[in-house]
Design a protein that fits this description.
heterodimer, A: mainly alpha, two-stranded antiparallel ribbon, 2 strands, B: 9 helices, globular
Chain lengths: 207, 209
């Protein structure tokens, strides 16, 4: 019996470190449900904080949780059953090699990679529009009329061919440039194909 | 005075708990609240002078964070995200107080754009009374003494975890032992240190730990 108690508290300790999964995670959460489990949880974190900085060696005597529970009980269920983490968020944090092992120009490479994907997407989008109109010879004015609303036909540098510029696509490319400058960005092709201007700039703002 | 960083893999635990919360397990969110309550209160106490307001603002912070959890993408550390919610919540409380004709002078502190400014002002926070400062010193001393009394392998394991931020796998490689042994050593170290801290908390809080 005592071994079971020790074992469950050890699970709680491992939960502090994010080192549990599956059935053990469930058991640890069950342990943390009761008052003693929550006190041990607080204690383990107090110990860790104090080891990192003695300035954090104060213990709160306020009871935030009781009042919060009452308010949470009145809240509607959270929208979305599954958290949509950015690709690699959990894997990045769990990676054995910390950030210090990355090359100094790794962020530059990621920016160039993102820009490369954006360029390919832009060329593909324009190419599809031009290809659709190649069945009959058309002038630049006719191209502009037949293209999607908002698309403008502009002369290319050679003066003979016509390039279609879509302001929506230009905005999308600008948005990808902004994302490319954020650290830790992983930009698989699927993200580009599914990108929507409706979600531009709304991903990670604190309320 | 600087705020200690969290170990690198603290975010693993946080993301796990956030995912569980969004999936409907409120117990997981309560663990996050208990984990960060002290830090958030400490932050808020530097922004407001009214002792009673600190608890209200902390509670409101965690409520707002709960509502916004589905929007959390893991691009930043969870505490960084929570920190900004706390600052914004405290600012809103202070702004609302300023508009109230019946306001408490003692409740207001100058609103700053960044909490960093408060740390540089050498002004004691709402929570820093002689008693609380002494209590914190006692806890810090107890933790230090407990660490020095630990067997070497336990002290090394808990140091690699809490201070160096290594994962269990990395610690196992560093110490040349199985991961299960690492988990056990860290747990036993925490238990030994907690045993020294509990009597202090019993006395300070008046409840049994």
């Amino acid at each position: 019996m005592k071994d079971d108690v020790v074992n469950t508290q050890e699970l709680l300790s491992a939960l502090v470190d994010g080192e549990l999964a599956g059935a053990e995670l469930e058991r640890a959460l069950a342990v943390a449900e009761d008052a003693q489990g929550q006190r041990n949880w607080q204690l383990y974190h107090l110990v860790g904080d104090v080891l990192r900085s003695p300035d954090l060696a104060h213990h709160s005597q306020r009871d935030v949780l009781t009042g919060l529970r009452a308010r949470l009980a009145q809240e509607p269920p959270l929208q979305g059953e599954h958290l949509q983490l950015v690709p690699g968020a959990l894997e990045q944090v769990q990676a054995p090699a910390p950030v210090r092992d990355q090359a100094a120009n790794a962020s530059v490479f990621r920016w160039k990679l993102a820009a490369g994907f954006a360029s390919i997407a832009a060329v593909a989008a324009v190419g599809w529009q031009v290809l659709a109109l190649q069945t009959a010879p058309v002038s630049g004015a006719q191209l502009a009329q037949s293209a999607a609303p908002g698309v403008v036909a502009v002369a290319a540098d050679d003066g003979r061919s016509v390039m279609l510029r879509d302001p929506n696509l230009d905005a999308l490319l600008a948005l990808h440039e902004q994302y490319a400058n954020r650290p830790g960005l992983q930009v698989p092709a699927e993200f580009l194909r599914n990108a929507s201007l409706a979600h531009a700039g709304s991903s990670q703002r604190a309320p | 005075m600087t705020v200690a960083p969290l170990p690198l893999s603290s975010n693993d635990s946080d993301l796990q708990l956030v995912q569980r919360t969004v999936a409907g397990d409120q117990r997981a969110y309560e663990l996050l609240v208990l984990k960060y309550q002290r830090r958030i209160e400490r932050l808020v106490a530097r922004m407001v002078r009214d002792h009673d307001l600190v608890q209200d603002i902390a509670q409101e912070t965690f409520l707002r964070a709960y509502r916004a959890l589905p929007q959390f993408r893991g691009e930043a550390q969870f505490y960084t995200w929570l920190y900004r919610i706390a600052v914004n919540t405290a600012k809103k409380f202070l702004m609302d107080l300023r508009r109230d004709p019946v306001l408490t002078e003692s409740a207001l502190a100058p609103v700053q754009d960044d909490e960093e400014t408060f740390r540089n002002r050498h002004e004691p926070s709402t929570d820093e009374t002689p008693e609380t400062v002494l209590a914190a010193q006692e806890i810090a001393a107890a933790v230090q003494a407990a660490m020095e009394a630990l067997p070497e392998e336990l002290r090394q394991a808990v140091t690699l975890r809490e201070i160096e931020g290594l994962s269990y796998d990395e610690i196992a490689q560093a110490m040349g032992c199985p991961i299960g042994t690492v988990r056990s050593r860290i747990f036993r170290a925490r238990e030994a240190i907690s045993a020294r801290v509990k009597p202090l908390l019993d006395r300070q809080t008046g409840k049994r730990w």
